[in-house]
Write a structure and sequence with these properties.
The complex is a heterodimer of chains A (371) and B (390). Chain A has three domains: 113 residues, Acyl-CoA dehydrogenase/oxidase, N-terminal domain (Butyryl-Coa Dehydrogenase, subunit A, domain 1, Orthogonal Bundle); 99 residues, Butyryl-CoA Dehydrogenase, subunit A, domain 2 (Beta Barrel); 146 residues, Butyryl-CoA Dehydrogenase, subunit A, domain 3, CATH 1.20.140. In chain A, 51% of the residues lie in helices and 15% in strands. In chain A, β4 and β5 form a beta hairpin. A four-stranded mixed β-sheet of chain B has the order 1-4-5-8. In chain B, strands 2-3-7-6 form a four-stranded antiparallel β-sheet, with no helix packed on it. The chains are: A alpha+beta (371), B alpha+beta (390). Chains A and B meet through α7, β9, α8, α9 and α11 of A and α7, α8, α9 and α11 of B.
């Protein structure tokens, strides 16, 4: 396997992303969107697409930059550092990976539209308050040559704004993935006000008509497409959460050096030093799991499940610790809305839950390791 | 075996060599105190197979696979070293030799030693002929190691050493000791230390084992009473021994973290061992704790791997080795707590159904003390990595 060291290109990609995002999307950008009651910035996504980020997992024939999952993780990590709001995970990572599993012209055209920044996606999979992709009740009933979809999806991240939806449904032949325009008759989207101020929706399907054309891959074989797409999304989300932890931690360390009490910087107190050092150790260990998951997805995707679940479970724990310590070490100011730490805490909570929480992924690790 | 550079060609040659040369009795992956040879003049081989295995490996440089051939190694790069460990693990082969000479003195000599010192001291380590111990801590110099007071005076044609060391692992079984001594009492504490090599058979050296909570006595007190040491037995410059000591500590920390329960990935999952203890059933709490430990073990194993890859790419671990030591040892303690819990009353018997588990459990408590305590490691991270004041 490729080394667990970032290549020169990867380092450059990260530096370039950081430079761009510090200008275009610092945390204050998310705050501005929230205060305006908005959950997306189309201009920002267009710029990202121009830089090749929307097509990071799209083949070059379809106009993508095709840099792979480790690179996607690096971008996600940089976005995590300043809590960047964009359709990157849902569209550029999850949907692009799903579409890549299908070798037909329609999927090719969809990938082209993604890379160009012209089309956004959301994955509609959850039906209850916990991630459980094996338990799907939204039905796809066969009617004539097509299907009728009935049921509801919840916690559809980016689902309020997305142009299209990847919908997991239960058909007679088994779980099936549909690729539908989000304005198809019978689809009702309800924005849910989320703690992280980002887009998420509850989506109801009432006698939604779909044809064979709308099926991604084969009827009854959703897993062939969904498994790689989920793994890609989970790994990139883990990378985002780890970037988030690094962002929160960076703020905290700076504060420890600046804030004076008892006539000295609070970072001179050993009680805080050791907790900060412990947190840094956790972020270093998690960073290894993140890079490893990216490498596995690039080189041996069929057996990347353990690596991805390891990354997601570690990242969830580390981000949680980083924001808890972040608020605590900032003291009262950490509790105020005027200060950014709260944004980190809230996004960490959403990232922990999305695509499987710590318990879900630790369970996958345990099973893969034989207990 | 001739030198083969292509890792996969090396793998097949090595596999054939192992098939031919590794005795059946050495293929049980045993890891008890005496199952792996420590070498030295006082070593009693457990079996003929153990002796044969050592000799055959030493002849090929495979006791120290990454050392240069000139000093008794096989000159393997990282890719082939990995193949070597994979192939050894594949047949459950015991390590042919373990020693502080291999883990600690060797790397320090390779970095700081003169060519004469390397040629003189390294090959006997590789062949398992000389066993070394480490004289660092003193009764008054534990976490504050640089305040050590063992006196070393320049007597013209020799050094004269007086003082006491403590926690000297296996000093009573070692042939030689590498010692930190104070050669300048006026200089600031880090600037008056030298790193010397000393024959344990010298007149004036005595050792006394210390019995530990595990019932074992791996550590000793070591006393130096007017011990004469030849002038050329200093490694690095006089009064610059702290540089050598720090370099060696980095290796020691990596070794302790890597050794912490076979974290490097290939080993069996802790949860699987616990489950077997309990007839395939694990209670909910223990299973959840084992999951957490497994997640952490895999991630720490990958971090060791990542730091090795970085080192190969020319980015040294430096002060971050403190992180590896801290995380690895704390996890190892936690793993042994789970093993004890899983073993129940079986694990409370010194030589019960779980074998040496209680003694191993107690031994792990030293992991976060030896080679720099967890608190010292966190101090290094907070000051040197994070730049926190004070």
């Amino acid at each position: 396997m490729a080394k667990l060291v970032k290549t020169e290109e990867e380092v450059m990609l990260g530096d370039m992303a950081r430079g761009f995002l510090d200008e275009a999307a610092p945390v204050s950008h998310l705050r501005k969107l929230r205060d305006a009651g908005e959950t997306e910035d189309k201009g920002l996504w267009a710029e990202m697409a121009q830089m090749g980020w929307a097509g990071i997992l799209v083949p070059e024939e379809q106009g993508g930059s095709d840099m792979g999952h480790a690179a996607a993780g690096i971008l996600a990590g940089e976005m995590g550092k300043t809590l960047v709001t964009s359709p990157f995970l849902s569209t550029a990572v999850i949907a692009a990976t799903a579409l890549r599993q299908v070798a037909d012209d329609r999927a090719g055209a969809a990938l082209q539209a993604i890379a160009a920044g012209d089309r956004t996606y959301a994955l509609a999979i959850d039906e209850s308050h916990k991630f459980n992709p094996d338990k799907v009740e939204l039905s796809a009933e066969k009617v004539g040559n097509g299907f009728l979809l009935n049921g509801s999806k919840t916690f559809v991240v980016d689902g309020g704004n997305a142009d299209r939806l990847l919908v997991l449904a239960d058909a007679e032949e088994g779980l099936t993935l549909f690729d539908l325009p989000s304005d198809r008759t019978g689809i009702t989207r309800t924005h849910t006000a989320m703690i992280d101020s980002r887009d998420s929706a509850r989506i109801d399907f009432s006698d939604v008509e779909a044809t064979g054309e709308d099926v991604l891959g084969s009827v009854g074989y959703a897993a062939n497409i969904l498994t790689p797409a989920l793994r890609a999304g989970q790994a990139a989300l883990a990378a985002e959460a780890t970037g988030l932890a690094a962002g929160a931690f960076g703020m905290t360390v700076e504060y420890l050096k600046e804030r004076k009490q008892f006539g000295m910087p609070i970072g001179a107190f050993q009680a805080l030093q050791h907790r900060a050092a412990h947190l840094w150790c956790e972020t270093e260990v998690t960073a290894s799991a993140i890079l490893h998951a990216g490498r596995k997805l690039d080189e041996d995707p069929a057996s990347a499940g353990l690596a991805v679940s390891l990354a997601k479970s570690r990242a969830t724990q580390t981000a949680k610790l980083a924001v808890i310590e972040g608020v605590q070490m900032h003291g009262g100011i950490g509790m105020t809305d005027a200060f950014d730490m709260g944004f980190y805490m809230k996004r960490a909570r959403v990232a922990a839950e999305w695509l499987g929480d710590y318990g879900y992924h630790a369970e996958q690790v345990a099973r893969a390791r034989g207990f | 075996m001739q030198e083969i550079f292509d890792p996969e060609a090396f793998r097949s040659a090595l596999r054939a060599w192992l098939e031919e040369n590794c005795p059946e009795e050495m293929r049980d992956n045993a890891q008890s105190e005496t199952s792996i040879c420590w070498g030295g003049k006082r070593w009693t081989f457990e079996s003929d197979a153990q002796k044969t295995w050592l000799e055959r490996c030493a002849a090929e440089g495979l006791t120290v696979p990454t050392w240069p051939r000139a000093y008794g190694g096989a000159g393997l790069d990282r890719a082939r070293e990995k193949v070597f460990h994979e192939e050894m693990a594949r047949i459950n082969a015991r390590s042919p030799l373990q020693s502080f000479g291999i883990w600690m003195l060797g790397p320090a000599l390779l970095h700081f030693g003169t060519e004469e010192q390397k040629l003189h001291y390294l090959p006997p380590i590789a062949r398992g002929e000389v066993r070394w111990c480490q004289g660092y801590s003193e009764p008054g110099a534990g976490s504050d190691l640089a305040s050590l007071q063992t006196k070393c005076e320049d007597k013209g044609d020799h050094w004269l050493v007086n003082g006491q060391k403590i926690w000297t692992s296996y000093a009573d079984q070692a042939d030689w000791i590498f010692v930190l001594v104070r050669t300048d009492r006026e200089a600031p504490k880090h600037k008056g230390i030298s790193f010397i090599l000393l024959d344990m058979e010298s007149e004036g050296v005595t050792t006394r084992p210390i019995q530990l909570i595990s019932g074992k006595s791996p550590f000793c007190e070591t006393f130096f009473d007017d011990v004469k040491v030849p002038k050329e037995q200093v490694v690095g410059d006089v009064n610059r021994g702290w540089d050598v000591a720090k370099y060696l500590l980095t290796h020691e920390r990596q070794m302790i973290s890597a050794g912490a329960g076979g974290l490097a990935g290939g080993g069996r999952a802790l949860g699987a061992v616990l489950s077997e203890d309990n007839g395939g059933e694990l209670d909910t709490v223990l299973r959840a704790e084992a999951m957490q430990a497994e997640v952490d073990a895999l991630a720490i194993g990958l971090t060791l791997e990542r730091y090795k890859d970085q080192a190969e790419a020319g980015q040294g671990a430096g002060d971050a080795s403190a992180m590896l030591k801290y995380m690895g040892t704390e996890l190892n303690k936690q793993r042994y707590e789970l093993l004890m819990s899983s073993g129940g009353s079986d694990a409370l018997e010194w030589d019960g159904p779980t074998g040496g588990r209680p003694s191993d459990w107690l031994r792990t408590k030293a992991n976060s003390i030896e080679g720099g305590t967890s608190e010292v490691m966190l101090g290094i991270v907070s000051k040197r990595v994070l730049g926190l004041p004070g």
